[in-house]
Amino acid sequence: MVSEFENKVITCRAAVAWEAGKPLSLEEIQVAPPKAGEVRIKITNTSLCHSDSFCLSGKDYNQHFPMILGHESAGIVESVGEGVTKVAPGDHVIPLYMPECGQCPFCLSGRTNICLAISQTQNVGLMPDGTTRFSCNGKQIHHFMGISSFSEYTVVSQLSVTKIDKEAPLDKMCLIGCCIPTGYGAATKTANVFKGASVAVFGCGALGLSVIQGAKACGASRIIAIDINPEKSKISSEFGATDFVNPLDHPDKKIEDVIRGMTFLGVDFSFDTSGGRIDVMNSAFECVTIGWGTAVIISLADAGERISTVPFNMITGKKWMGCAFGGEKGSDLNTYVQSYMKGTLKIDEYITKNISLDEINEGLDDLRRGKCIREVIIMK
Questions:
Q1: Main-chain dihedrals φ then ψ at residue 65, nearest 5 degrees
Q2: Residue 190 in 3-state DSSP?
Q3: Does the pLDDT value for residue 199 go beyond 60?
Q4: Are both 136 and 212 inside the same structural domain?
Q5: Are residues 56 and 27 located together in one domain of the fold?
Q6: Which residues, 6 or more positions from 343, have their beta carbon under 8 angstroms from its beta carbon?
Q7: Containing domain of residue 38, as a range?
Q8: Does 2 fall in a domain?
Q9: 169 and 188 housed in the same domain
Q10: DSSP of 194-237
Q11: Looking at 282, 307, 323, which one is the last position of a domain?
Q12: Does some domain include residue 278?
């Protein structure tokens, strides 16, 4: 399958973040052909994630403007550069913000999903050769998380893409690019929630619901969902939560005391997906039991923020840890695809509505205000 644009620059539409704290700007951009080891993808669908909103806010000092945000996505390979063997034109794919080279010390260790291969350039918004494939009005535009899916076309390293079943609907598969494995894997792989465990999940957005879904799959006996939005009670129970707690209903108590009061000495596992509040991260740690209690951080936090506790908590056996992408690798994602196809993994239930690229700023506002779980952009 040969693309009409092979080896040519593609002109398309994209939502460009020119500077921090400002709305995205719909622009006509140029997307260069893929170089050796690279893949150009026609993005069919991309959903809006809090990480995009967080980085646009400027609270993450590692981002480089101007840039094209977006990372939770799916699409079809348009063309490939020299030496690419992982995918071919026409393949349906999920771009990966967590690449997988299979050769660096971390990949070879078998102990982590973190890959070092292209981390230095990815972290500064560039392709592995230190350049960018995007331009707008003659100005170079940075990449984001190695993906930049708020564009009709993008270019990624072949290390940052995984092929999926063509029968799977891409408007649903885009959520497997971030929120679902990040939360589900945190419960099933990183924490390894045991059967009969008690679990507290702080925040009931897409990440929290994914943790709940994963904890339920592990056989947790009690799953306490915590959120200040009372409307999250119903959907959290639909995903598997057995209890719902709104901290605003307990103005005179710390939320960790409320959770401990619902259990014997605290929960076996807690997960912070609340969106980067340090006080919530600390509460999530404080509510786990001594002896073996494990608190897992998934949220991002503002630049310079620090978490803290007294050493005695560690001496008594409590554990504090974190994970990226739920500890999953790109090569693991077809398991999620097949689970969805078999009806054992919820995805449709996350999607509040579909929107167009022109509605992206309104969609981000909905996300910030808690008016949606996920809004999915349908690209033309």
A1: -95, 155
A2: helix
A3: yes
A4: no
A5: yes
A6: none
A7: 10-177+347-378
A8: no
A9: no
A10: PTT-EEEEE--SHHHHHHHHHHHHHT-SEEEEE-S-TTHHHHHH
A11: 323
A12: yes
* Segment 325-340 mean pLDDT: 96
Give just the sign of the alpha carbon dihedral 92, 324, 72, 179: positive
100, 331 contact by CB (below 8 A): yes
Is residue 191 located within the same domain as residue 254?
Answer: yes
Domain identity same for 171 and 250: no
Number of domains in the chain: 2
User: Domain of 277: which CATH number?
Assistant: 3.40.50.720
Put simply, whether the predicted model's pTM sits higher than 0.85 gets the answer yes
One domain for residues 241 and 123: no
Asked whether residue 222 falls in the same domain as residue 239, the answer is yes
For residue range 229-255, what is the model confidence (pLDDT) as tens digits?
A: 999 999 999 999 999 999 999 999 999
| pLDDT tens, position by position, 306-325 | 888 888 888 999 999 999 99
Within 10 Å of residue 228's Cβ, how many Cβ atoms? 15
Q: Which of 17, 42, 19, 15 is nearest to 29 (CA)?
A: 15
Assigned token pair, 177 = 């690019």
CATH number of the domain where residue 58 is located: 3.90.180.10
**Does 339 fall in a domain?**
no
Please tell me the distance from the alpha carbon of residue 75 to that of residue 94, in angstroms, as a whole number: 7
Within 13 Å and on the Cβ side, how many CA atoms surround 225? 31
**Which residues touch 171 (CB under 8 Å, ≥6 apart)?**
44, 45, 74, 351, 354, 376, 378
d(CA 197, CA 92): 38
Query: Could you give the 3-state DSSP secondary structure of residue 5?
Result: coil
pLDDT in tens, 90-136: 999 999 999 999 999 999 999 999 999 999 999 999 999 999 999 99
Write a three-state SS string for 288-357: ECCCCCEEEECCCCCCCCCCCCCHHHHHCCCEEEECCHHHCCHHHHHHHHHHHHHCCCCCHHHEEEEECH
Same domain? 221 vs 319: yes
The strand pair at 92-95 and 161-163 is best described as antiparallel
Strands 38-47 and 139-141: unpaired
Amino acid at 192: N
In a domain, 341, yes or no: no
